[in-house]
Design a protein that fits this description.
With 449 residues, the chain is mainly alpha-helical. It has a single domain, classed as Cytochrome c oxidase-like, subunit I domain (Cytochrome C Oxidase, Chain A, Up-down Bundle), CATH 1.20.210.10. Helix content is 71%, strand content 1%. It is globular. The structure holds protoporphyrin IX containing FE. Protoporphyrin IX containing FE binds next to helix 2, helix 4, helix 5 and helix 6.
Amino acid sequence: MALPLPAPGGNAFSAGGGAAPQLPPLGMVAPFLLAAPIALVIGAAMVFGLTDTMFIAVNLPRVVAITHAIVLGAVTMMMMGATYQLGPVVLGGQLLSIRLARVQFVVHILGLSLFIWALSRWDVSWMSIAGSTLLVSFILYITNIASALSRAGSPSPVRRYLLASIGFLGLAGAFGLTWVGALEHSWFPVTLGRLAAHAHIGLVGWLALTLMGVSYQLVPMFGIAHHVDPRFRQAALWVTAAATVTFATGMLFDPPAPLRLTLAAFLAAGPLLWSLDMWRFVLGRSRRRLDIQGRATAISLAFLTLTVVLGLGAAIGTPFTPDNEMARWPLAYAVAGVLGWAGTAALGNGIKIHAFLVWMHRYQRKVGSAPVPMIADLYDARIAHLTLALHTIASSTLVLGCVIGNLQLVHVGAAILIVATSLYLLTLLSMYRPMHIHPRSAPVRTVAG
Ligand code: HEM
């Protein structure tokens, strides 16, 4: 299937109409997209330092360090790169400054590296310095993206989702830094409920809402399902945002199991509504054969269902979670949500977004005057599918290892994850290789999606 060629100055991601969108430089967006898998490999490698104690409590220093390497390194940097690309291009708004985005990348990498090191040693003074640096990175990012969103000419559905999600990112950072202050100065105990409040503002408010909003743009576009009318676009946003605030507020007071379960069920409602729309896009698509992004979407939706089941189980606690290994279900739930749901979707979309970006910068200008490859020619689809399969196996193995409390299985899952993520990184890097196109294939008039 082919996407229409971009209008002069525009591109296939454009929501259409209005002024020609600004295409951010490759050198600004690509570092985020390439650093994300590197952070995931580092996070997965750190899993080998874990012992059986990981099943006892979720807030062990090394577990918290690995969690942040994955959520702030892999998923957040992928989301930042994707929104720097899509915000201006899809919505037609202008970033405040390209240079600011480059500075933010450096600040984020510095803050994150220091934070992971400080968390592993549980050095609260350094955690405080690193956490403040990360908060600066968030503020720079929010300022830049908010500028693009506020100046957006198109009423794209992504806009409201991103406005809400960047607000939650700021809130997650503010809570995180407050928790560090509480640990350093003993202001108040950081109970498991308070930990969950901060974690879910970040995981659901920031990561899930960004993923959900961007998916409303990308899933119908890549699957060619523009004719399918989503039913829950607004409802999924408002329910998720309201549930995140309610959940976080309730968890601050460490509520009893029945209330935890109610809050968790409310939190699951928005993503489940969203998933109904996504299934409608997948089933109603015009593209007959699912490509890498379509398959990744389907797998990630299955992981979302698993996440909800595990999350409800974790909220109930005993008897699902044995009292001597309380962390098993919460960890399995976090792996299913972060690696399974968000990670799989990020993998499928990441390959397509990166290929599009490289194609636009390297070949768009040559269309009509010289042989150019199609977007799909930039990567090997078989390797991309192998990567997806390995990522799925790794996530499932890790979930199973956590649920049954088997450390060896967790290590096997981490090893497979390292292989899968390395393949993903190689797939992205391979898009920069020089391409020799047979003149017979040129000039092309359409861009393979
Ligand atoms: C300035 C940025 C941030 C700082 C300083 C920070 C700080 C912290 C601290 C200190 C803890 C552990 C509290 C304890 O165990 O007593 C924690 C836990 C956690 N944070 Fe953050 N955080 C930040 C941003 C985020 C964001 C944006 C997300 C999500 C996208 C996030 C997700 C989590 C999760 C999931 C946990 C639970 C980890 C576990 O139990 O293994 N954090 N955070």
